[in-house]
């Protein structure tokens, strides 16, 4: 698929990477609008195609007392308001086949969580909504295996599919990014996104709260751009330490524009190098 097929997407012909970014979870309207406003301002300046990300519910939590959401309909309505206010596309996760049609009424892209990327009924249901489908690669899957998930969407009559790498499990409490997976999955004819914040998670902590290494966000992002990824996924918040979900690995909102500016410069350098040498990185 071409990212210009995403409704409301801007700067699709800018030759920049595209960005999926926002809070881990929708905590309320004010916080969502505040994050969206900052992200829109930065991406407009840099001509980066932008999609606002926010989960209307967090279904995969370690502890039963973890924050899961403010209510499905309320959070989805906030996502719709973000889209209408800033004239941008939005993306959210779904967790079962039954949720596909519900979420599709409010957002432009349906995201399949990594742990659910092999679930045929969810992939088929998402495909049949006609929305763009973003499949996160399971932490347990080889990049080569993602063709089967992609084909489940395509065989259901929907070619608007992309994939996101969010790292691979390395032992019990760490993840690594294998950048070889980017060109491998690009050969499947889909845009490939690198999730730079979830790749830095440290799951399975004894506290039941996932840890992370946000100080390495720029390192992972720069390597992904150098390796030729089509898009970047990141979670950001104006107060990560008090975010209700995944705060340990989020980028502080104040640093977003600076990071994106560095990445656009690197992207230009990669494209120029490809042009001069005739060899695609």
Structure write-up:
With 281 residues, the protein is α/β, with parallel strands linked by helices. It has a single domain (14-275), classed as Alpha-Beta Barrel (TIM Barrel). It is 34% helix and 17% strand. The protein has eight helices and 13 strands. The strands form three sheets. It has an eight-stranded parallel barrel, surrounded by five helices. A two-stranded antiparallel sheet has the order 7-8. It has a two-stranded antiparallel sheet with strand order 10-11. Helix 1 (29-46) links the parallel strand 1 and strand 2 (50-53). The longest helix has 22 residues, at 256-277.
Please render the helix and strand layout as text.
Elements: E1 18-22, H1 29-46, E2 50-53, H2 72-86, E3 90-93, H3 99-104, E4 109-112, H4 120-128, E5 132-136, H5 146-154, E6 161-165, E7 168-169, E8 175-176, H6 181-186, E9 192-195, E10 201-202, E11 211-212, H7 217-227, E12 231-237, E13 251-252, H8 256-277
Parallel strand pairs: 1-2, 1-12, 2-3, 3-4, 4-5, 5-6, 6-9, 9-12, 12-13
Antiparallel strand pairs: 7-8, 10-11
């Amino acid at each position: 698929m071409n990212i210009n097929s995403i409704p409301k997407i801007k700067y699709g012909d800018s030759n920049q990477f595209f960005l999926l970014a926002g809070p881990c979870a929708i905590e309320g309207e004010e916080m969502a609008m505040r994050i969206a406003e900052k992200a829109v301002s930065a991406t407009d300046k840099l001509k980066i195609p932008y999609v606002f990300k926010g989960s209307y519910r967090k279904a995969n939590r370690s502890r039963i007392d973890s924050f899961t959401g403010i209510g499905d309909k309320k959070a989805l309505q906030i996502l719709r308001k973000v889209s209408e206010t800033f004239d941008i596309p939005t993306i959210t996760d779904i967790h079962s086949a039954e949720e596909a049609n519900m979420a599709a009424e409010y957002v432009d892209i349906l995201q399949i969580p990594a742990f659910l990327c092999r679930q045929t009924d969810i992939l088929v249901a998402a495909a049949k909504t006609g929305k763009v489908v973003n499949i996160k690669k399971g932490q347990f899957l080889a990049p080569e295996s993602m063709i089967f998930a992609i084909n489940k969407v395509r065989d259901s009559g929907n070619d608007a599919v992309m994939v996101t790498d969010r790292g691979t499990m390395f032992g019990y409490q760490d993840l690594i990014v294998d950048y070889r997976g980017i060109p491998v999955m690009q050969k499947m004819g889909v845009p490939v996104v690198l999730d730079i914040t979830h790749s830095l998670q440290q799951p399975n902590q004894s506290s039941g709260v996932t840890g992370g290494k946000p100080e390495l966000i720029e390192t992972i992002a720069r390597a992904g751009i150098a390796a030729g990824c089509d898009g970047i996924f990141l979670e950001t918040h104006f107060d990560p330490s008090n975010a209700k979900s995944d705060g340990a690995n989020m980028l502080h909102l104040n640093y977003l524009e600076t990071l994106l500016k560095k990445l656009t410069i690197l992207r230009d350098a990669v494209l120029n190098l490809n042009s001069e040498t005739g060899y695609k990185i």
